[in-house]
Amino acid sequence: MVALPDVANLIGGQEAPARTGAWLEKLRPADESLLCRVARSGAEDVAQAVAAARDAQPAWAERTAVARGDVVRELALRLRERREEASAIVEAETGKPAELALGETDAAVEMGLFVAGEGRRSYGRTTTASMANRTVLTMRQPLGVAALIMSFNTPLPNVAWKAFPAVFCGNAAVVKPSEHAPASASFFAGLALEAGVPAGVLNVVQGVGEEAGAPLVEHPGVDLVSFTGSAATGRSINEAAARRLAKTCLELGGKNALVVCDDADLDGATRWALASAFSNAGQRCASASRIVVLDSVYEDFRERLLGGLASLDPQPVISRESMDRILAAVERARDDGTVVLAGGTRLDRAGWFVAPTVLEGASAGDEISRTELFGPVTVLYRCGSLDDAIALVNDSPYGLTAAIHTASLHRAMRFAERVQAGVVVVNAGTHGSEPHMGFGGVKDSGTGWREAGIEALDVYSDSKVVNLVVDPAKA
Ligand code: NAD
């Protein structure tokens, strides 16, 4: 079992405890034992980190995109070299299986390699002009200092998706990791220093949201707030950042639906439904927390799904509060008449394990249908037709991802066109993003930006239009 040292802040290339000397205790989700202490930072630490970032940013932005891409590549390669070590930290602080932690580390590496390649692309546009002898082109400009605030669920990809493009685009950044996954972000930032990211370009301020995150959002020295987390926090961040007109990119929650049609391969649909609903203990923004099944295969599918639960490798949720919140929501649903087909209880072992839970009989308007639980809980719904299924899927505050299982191209395309989601998957799970694919959602799932892909460059840079006017007489 990894024992971790205290996790401090990283400001201007120096490790430092919080100015007040306060620490948080981070417990292991798998057995509730103490994993490490974490700097409990506040506004003073944030101000110091923003100042360090502002100092470091201009010289970093002076480097060419190719040179910044080279540093990003070096960081990605170092992360690949130390993937076992990085994954062990992720495993300890989240309780997820080693294989999953390794896969996530590799995904973070791939994001770095993808972004590094942009050093030799970073294409702009040239365009026409109504005036003769005028050439118009665009170039990317860094924004300045980016606040990167994130969730705990896939800690290394979460930091990688933001830090790689933020830094590559010539910004300096202040990362505020989740208080539930502090160590992997600090490991990443330490590696960044070793890889040649200059001191002050990537800073980390640890702590809880209201104490360390809120002052970061409000700091006038922060030009961009890029946030991944819940819709409730995102809303308050958006309000605070809007007061000073800061650019804000929000990647928020989901209540993602997987639709099973009556012509679906039911084995495949079951396998994907189990993976989508329960992997990472349902702590995925893209998890399938709603499964919509067409009438004639409903009983058959339900039996297969319930039968598959025994094959799952249980994984804890991140905290006791999370576990209690999830179980309480299931209890309220049961009180409201929703049927608990499986789970709904804590597993009888140390750690914060919620039994994989399957419910049925809820209506689209019920709390259990509309609230993201971020746990291993999914609700089955029965529908008479594809159009009814699409209407049910869209009857949600969220619109992040959606999947359909069908053998029909016609049904798949109708679903893809009509479903309100940022990502649609045919015949697989509700997740499946890759570094070159823009990821994000509609409605309460985000503010329309896309992370990853070259779309991420639009988050972390401004586009400047340059007009070049020549005089042919002087040629
Ligand atoms: P959360 O909103 O509680 O916390 C996210 C981060 O915000 C943490 O670092 C937290 O400390 C910080 N924070 C909390 N209050 C703050 C405040 N007032 N000001 C500034 N920062 C504050 O979310 P969580 O429980 O860590 O994560 C779960 C949520 O994240 C789910 O809704 C999930 O769907 C979402 N998520 C979305 C994506 C995506 O790409 N769309 C990816 C992963 C997770």
* Helix share, percent: 25-40%
Q: Helix tally? A: 15
In this entry the ligands are: nicotinamide-adenine-dinucleotide
Q: What spatial form do the alpha-carbon principal axes imply?
A: globular
Based on CA atoms alone, the radius of gyration comes out at 23 Å
The number of E-state strands comes to 21
Largest sheet strand order: 14-15-16-13-12-18-19
Report the major sheet. 7 strands, mixed
Q: Distance between termini?
A: 72 Å
Low-pLDDT parts are: none
% residues in beta strands: 15-25%
Mean pLDDT, to the nearest integer, reads: 97
What is the SS-derived class? alpha/beta
Supply database-style keywords.
binds nicotinamide-adenine-dinucleotide, five-stranded parallel beta sheet, seven-stranded mixed beta sheet, globular, single chain, 475 residues, 15 helices, alpha/beta
Can you put this structure into words, describing what you see?
This protein has 475 residues and is of the alpha/beta class. Helix 3 (83-94) packs across helix 4 and helix 9 (266-278) packs across helix 10. The protein has a seven-stranded mixed sheet with strand order 14-15-16-13-12-18-19, with helices on both faces. It has a five-stranded parallel sheet with strand order 9-8-7-10-11, sandwiched between helices. A three-stranded antiparallel sheet has the order 5-6-21. The chain has helices spanning 43-62, 65-81, 83-94, 98-117, 155-168, 182-195, 209-218, 231-243, 266-278, 298-308, 320-335, 367-370, 386-394, 409-418, 455-460; strands spanning 9-11, 14-16, 23-27, 34-39, 126-127, 134-142, 145-149, 172-176, 202-204, 224-228, 247-251, 256-260, 288-294, 339-342, 357-360, 377-383, 398-399, 401-405, 423-426, 442-443, 461-469. 40% of the residues lie in helices and 21% in strands. It has 15 helices and 21 strands. Nicotinamide-adenine-dinucleotide binds at residues 149-153, 176, 178-179, 208-210, 213-214, 217, 228-230, 233, 236-237, 251-254, 285, 372, 374, 400.
